[in-house]
Amino acid sequence: MAGTELAHAGARVAVSETRVLMKGDAALRSHRALRRELCFTRLGAGAFTLLCTAVSLLFFSQHLAACKVRSRAPESAPCSCPKCSETSQFRALADGGSKEPYQAFLKIACKHPPSAHDTLLMWEQNKLFGFSLSSDSATLIVPSAGMYRIALQVTYRGTDQVSSSKQMILEHHLAVLSDSYQQDRTMLSAFETVYSENTNWRKSLYSEGIFNFQKGDGLKVKTSNLRLVDCDGNVGTKTFLTAYPLAVA
């Protein structure tokens, strides 16, 4: 009887040890599987990083080669490098193959004292490439359709010839004449109030903008204070009109 119980006890111990060994083998297999998955994940991430690096280097080398080709190309060749300057692009826009871009710099023409009814500023050319000035010297003619940067400055000063009070409003407008419209369009306006009881004052009003013009459009400046425009000294630094192309046809 005692021998039988000992035999059963030994069998139970053997079964328990077998179960412990089986559980240990399962845990070991699971741990190995996790390590394999982690290893594959790391390999995939490394391969992806190398691929991205290779693509970036290829892209950079292509653009660097394009810039080197552009630097060795003749000046008349079209620009393919994205870092070419605006000046190089504008050189191809001038008439007759000229290397100068379209540009205009006009200074006020103070040829005779204006009357009380005059409103248009008269100009004389300081620099004029591609643009032209109307016969009455009041209108700047646009040479080609496109986007232009326009800058205008008018300088006013007090004078004994114009009666003034404590408050005076200075104003001028840049208008465009176009075949597409029945009347002038105002593109830029400037206003300033001057408070003065004497004539010892000066005021410069500057404005600029980017506009789309058609070929043959005309630009002119109107002011309600023409007799107050400063015509003393170097007028080219006081009252001027400039035009420069940004993108033209």
TrEMBL record:
Residue ranges annotated for the THD domain, each copy included = 109-246
The record's listing under PROSITE patterns reads: THD_2
Give UniProt keywords alphabetically.
Cytokine, Membrane, Transmembrane, Transmembrane helix
Q: Which residue ranges traverse the bilayer?
A: 39-60
Highest rank taxon of the organism = Eukaryota
Identify the main location: membrane
Q: Localized where?
A: Membrane
A GO CC term assigned to this protein in UniProt: extracellular space
An example of a Pfam family matching this protein is: TNF
Q: Which GO terms describe its molecular function?
A: cytokine activity; tumor necrosis factor receptor binding
Q: Could you tell me the Gene Ontology terms of the biological process aspect for this record?
A: immune response
Family according to the record: Belongs to the tumor necrosis factor family.
Q: What name goes with this protein? A: THD domain-containing protein
Q: What organism is recorded for this protein?
A: Electrophorus voltai
